[in-house]
Amino acid sequence: MKAWSQGEIEFIEANYEKIPITVIAEKLGRTPVQTRREILKLGLKKKAEHTSEYYHKRKLIRQLLNMVRQSANMPLLKAEG
């Protein structure tokens, strides 16, 4: 595995909060695993507001999916007319 260049590190630092790791990895010619490890090694973490917003959205999506699943088990209503 080749060493990380200063340019690659600067790119990561400038973009890790804005761009998904998979895209950063692709742009740098690295794997997502290598990129994730380097981000951790650099001690970079996403800001709490981004993380909490992400988990809030995931929670809402899970709730919606559960509602859809529950409604799929309900008998269908016949259309009037």
List key phrases describing it.
single chain; 81 residues; mainly alpha; elongated
Kindly describe this structure.
- With 81 residues, this protein is mostly helical.
- Helix 2 (21-28) packs across helix 3.
- It folds into 2 domains: 1-42; 47-73.
- The mean pLDDT is 85.
- Helix content is 65%, strand content 0%.
- It has helices at 6-15, 21-28, 32-41, 48-72.
**Anisotropy-based shape:** elongated
Can you count the helices?
A: 4
Unreliable stretches, pLDDT < 50, 5 or more residues? none
Q: Considering DSSP H and I runs of 4 or more, what fraction of the residues is helical?
A: 55-70%
Gyration radius (Cα, Å) is 21 Å
Q: What quaternary form is this?
A: single chain
Report the order of strands and helices. HHHH
Could you tell me the number of beta strands? 0
Cα-to-Cα separation, first versus last residue: 69 Å
Q: What class would the helix/strand composition place it in?
A: mainly alpha
- Kindly state the mean pLDDT as a whole number? 85
Task: Estimate the strand proportion.
Answer: under 5%
Number of domains: 2
Largest sheet: none
What is the topology?
Layout: H1 6-15, H2 21-28, H3 32-41, H4 48-72
Helix pairs in contact: 2-3
Task: Write a concise synopsis of the structure shown.
The chain has about 80 residues and is an all-alpha fold.
